[in-house]
Design brief:
- The complex is a heterodimer of chains A (252) and B (343).
- With 252 residues, chain A is mostly helical.
- Chain A has a single domain, classed as MetI-like fold, CATH 1.10.3720.10.
- Helices cover 79% and strands 0% of the residues of chain A.
- Chain A contains 14 helices and no strands.
- In chain A, α3 packs across α11, α9 crosses α10 and α11 runs antiparallel to α14.
- Chain A starts with a helix and ends with a helix.
- Chain B is α+β, with helices and mostly antiparallel strands and 343 residues long.
- Chain B contains 9 helices and 18 strands.
- In chain B, the strands form 4 sheets. Chain B has a 6-stranded mixed β-sheet with strand order 6-7-8-3-9-10, with helices on both faces.
- In chain B, α3 crosses α4.
- The longest helix of chain B is centred in the middle third of the chain and has 17 residues.
- Classes of the chains: A mainly alpha (252), B alpha+beta (343).
- Chains A and B meet through α9 and α10 of A and β6 and α2 of B.
Chain lengths: 252, 343
């Protein structure tokens, strides 16, 4: 019992401390300052775009890992989870090495298309997607593997193509997993710091997302950092709670 | 048009080799013990597994068609209704998948639901349906696309005994109305006998016997079939009215026959006595009780002897003889009760 309580306290006390130290008097003015608004907007847009990218590519990847007839599936699955345990800074460095202006792929992007990804808003989205995608893939893959493939056979005997079967039978049956994965992915993207600052830098209005703004503010204006942190905390909790009621908790 | 199928499936430890023909409107039951390959045969017909089978219906061959392009309907053992769709959407699914407009598909689906007596459940989700209702939705879903071949995989196995009786007779009615070819896979002899026009008995991936239910019941050809239909079954060689059984012992029959024969008689034809019965033109031999099993109105006694035999006796007789496993008894059987037919 006691270890459990200590564990709970360890998780909750810092959050409570954040609220306790909040500069309530100046909070409204801080909250609606252009810097906070800008960072919050950038964060929401980038995290959402990154989530869309993760959905577009992560769901098919999850399907391949769960159902595909590919050799070395276990190994592939392990590879996909690497970004999950990789320090995000390392992910940022890796992205720089590949997509940077002199990177393996980046140099051709620059030469042929004049596209440079590092230190841009697109770079933020890519860094967040890189770090967050495994959360979605793992969640969707788990749901797919738990889903009974015989329902897909039943759909086939009714004349449904593989795509129709996926869309109308498989996807709805794994929807809770997809939603849970999406939420995790989005929350991870929203909080992403290491890969973003390494790959996209810290340019207010362009690449300074909320977590970066918190870090920046902590040195110059601790009160602002607390306010930003509270906003991040509320947004995350709010989204999790909202989706939990609708999708994850009860029956759909 | 007759459906011809030559099914060949090879697995590491198992080979299926079955030839089937099904006439339009005919219900063929594929009956066999677990692991005989019944479901494998069904999956090969449906195109759900890779096999080098040939399936021909009139001019068309199905060999290269994937499941979704075969004109089939399948009722799966646990129905596999799509849980997130209503009963109506489930039934309409096949039509929608084949390109029918939504309104038309729904109209056809509604008609089918009505036909299986579930019109008022159109909007119900599968988890709110009872087992019998779910089975009927599954049947409607399979038939809604007007398939050439209807495949039923143990369609009654998931139902409890009382529901089963009613659903079986309803299923029989729908199968009689259905003009296409039907293959029913089951391990339940009663389902097969009641629903099918013809039985194909499968053991270890091979057909061991086929015929009408009447033929199969009267003249089983393997121990499995004899057990299913509840007969004592022996192989023997006849010499006039004397038949020497392969497993030892001999039986006297009423009509003279010759050559290798199968010998059957019902357990109810067997009488048991504590002493050797005298002065009657009967087959008698000593045996010991190996097992006693209570059935609904009779008691089945398994007896070790030459030959071994099953006897159905009344509960009164059980009480009178005070039967215990290991008891020595005399078995007696009238010659006229024994049925023989060539091997």
């Amino acid at each position: 019992m006691l270890p459990a309580l200590i564990g709970l306290a360890f998780l909750l006390v810092p959050l409570a401390g954040l609220l306790a130290k909040a500069p309530w008097a100046t909070l409204p003015s801080q909250l609606f300052s252009p810097e906070v608004g800008q960072a919050l907007q950038l964060s929401l847009v980038c995290a959402s775009l990154a989530t869309v990218i993760c959905l577009l590519f992560g769901v098919p990847l999850a399907w391949l890992l769960a159902r595909g007839d590919v050799p070395g599936r276990g190994f592939l699955r392990a590879l996909v989870t690497v970004p999950l345990v990789l320090p995000p800074v390392v992910g940022g460095v890796a992205l720089l090495l590949v997509l940077g202006r002199r990177g393996l792929v980046g140099q051709y992007l620059d030469q042929w298309f004049g596209v440079s990804l590092p230190f841009t808003t697109t770079g933020v989205v890519l860094a967040e997607a890189f770090v967050a995608m495994p959360f979605l893939v793992i969640s969707v893959e788990g749901a797919l593997r738990a889903a009974d493939p015989r329902f897909e056979e039943a759909a086939a005997t009714l004349g449904a193509s593989r795509w129709l079967t996926f869309r109308r039978v498989t996807l709805p049956s794994v929807m809770p997993g997809v939603v849970a994965g999406t939420v995790l992915c989005w929350a991870r993207a929203l909080g992403e710091f290491g890969a973003t600052i390494t790959f996209a830098g810290n340019f207010p209005g362009k690449t300074t997302t909320m977590p970066l703004a918190v870090y920046l503010a902590l040195e110059t204006d601790p009160d602002a950092a607390i306010v930003l942190s509270i906003v991040l905390l509320l947004v995350s909790v709010g989204v999790l709670a909202g989706l939990r009621d609708r999708w994850i908790g009860g029956a759909t | 048009m007759t459906l011809h199928a030559a099914l060949h499936v090879t697995r590491e430890t198992f080979a299926l080799d079955v030839d089937l023909t099904i006439e339009p409107g005919e219900v063929v039951a594929l009956l066999g013990p677990n692991g005989a390959g019944k479901t494998t045969a069904l999956r090969a017909l449906a195109g759900l597994l890779v096999s080098d089978s040939t399936i021909r219906l009139g001019e068309s061959t199905w060999d290269d068609l994937p499941a979704e392009r075969r004109p089939i309907g399948v009722v799966f053992q646990d129905y596999l209704l799509f849980a997130h769709m209503t009963a109506l959407d489930n039934v309409a699914f096949g039509l929608r998948a084949r390109g029918t407009r939504k309104a038309d598909a729904n109209a056809v689906a509604a008609r089918w639901l009505d036909q299986v007596g579930l019109a008022e459940f159109a909007g119900a989700k599968p988890r709110t349906l009872s087992g019998g209702q779910a089975q009927r939705v599954a049947l409607a879903r399979a038939l809604a696309t007007d398939p050439e071949l209807l495949l039923l995989d143990e369609p009654l196995a998931a139902l409890d005994a009382s529901t089963r009786l009613r659903v079986r007779s309803e299923l029989g009615r729908h199968l009689r109305d259905y003009p296409g070819h039907t293959l029913l896979v089951t391990h339940d002899p009663l389902d097969a006998m009641v629903l099918a026009d013809r039985l194909v008995i499968l053991e270890n991936g091979r057909v061991v016997q086929h015929g009408t239910p009447r033929e199969v019941v009267r003249q089983p050809r393997t121990d499995y079939v004899a057990h299913l239909v509840g007969l004592n079954f022996y192989r023997g060689t006849a010499d006039g009215t004397e038949i020497h059984l392969d497993e030892g012992g001999a039986l006297t029959v009423a009509e003279p026959v010759s050559g290798p024969v199968h010998v059957v008689f019902p357990p109810s034809a067997v009488s048991l006595y504590p002493e050797k019965p005298v002065g009657s033109p009967r087959n008698t031999w000593p045996a010991t009780v190996a097992g006693i099993e209570q059935h609904a109105h009779t008691t089945r006694v398994e007896l070790d002897g030459t030959p071994t035999v099953l006897a159905d006796i009344t509960t009164a007789t059980v009480a009178e003889l005070r039967l215990q496993p290991g008891d020595p008894l005399w078995v007696s059987l009238k010659a006229t009760e024994i049925h023989t037919y060539p091997r």
